[in-house]
Write a structure and sequence with these properties.
By secondary structure, the chain is of the alpha+beta class. It is 47% helix and 13% strand. The protein folds into 2 domains: 10-61; 67-163, no CATH class. It is built from 8 helices and 6 strands; from the N terminus they run βααββαααββαααβ. α7 crosses α8 (146-153). It starts with a strand and ends with a strand.
Length: 167
């Protein structure tokens, strides 16, 4: 599976969140969320704006935001780097799958993370790239501690998409 980080319709993602229910959105007969009034739209827009700000801050604070920074990190990383939780073969595939643009990480291969790591370990790796909010999208991660449970209980960022193909 390849996780792709990019813009998504805010209303589409937030409509399925508990915030939409609290804001007064009413489900349609088909089970889809329908935004009924401007107050709901305002609440959802404000929540999406705040979420986008948090996601941007996480990306800006990430130590790895480009292929050049990744190369530098790999050359000088400490022995207790979160990346060292992956087997050498899985690490190589993960590193090879990373894609960047001017805004930072745009995608990564998740199958090895799901096969080898707990949710907390995956979160720590993705935190290096400012992509930790994508962790709950990986349903195959091991859950062994309360920290793992908390990571998987997070709502994914409203600027995410999951593309259903191997990277």
């Amino acid at each position: 599976m390849q996780i792709v980080i990019g813009p998504v319709l805010v209303a589409a993602v937030l409509a399925f969140s508990p915030l939409a229910h609290a804001a007064g959105a009413k489900p349609s007969p088909a089970g889809n969320q329908v935004i009924e009034d401007t107050a709901t739209v305002d609440v959802l827009t404000q929540a999406a704006t705040e979420e986008a700000k948090r996601a941007k801050l996480e990306r800006l604070l990430a130590p790895i935001q480009s292929a050049a920074e990744l190369a530098s990190y790999l050359e000088s990383r400490a022995p207790d780097s979160p990346l060292d939780r992956l087997s050498p073969a899985a690490l190589g595939r993960f590193i090879d799958s990373l894609t960047f643009n001017d805004n930072g990480l745009t995608g990564y291969r998740s199958d090895d993370l799901q096969a080898e790591l707990t949710a907390t370990q995956a979160y720590r790796i993705l935190e290096l790239f400012g992509a930790q909010r994508t962790t709950p999208l990986m349903r195959g991660l091991a859950i062994k501690t309360p920290f793992d449970e908390a990571v998987m209980a997070m709502n994914p960022n409203d600027s995410l998409m999951m593309d259903d193909h191997e990277g």
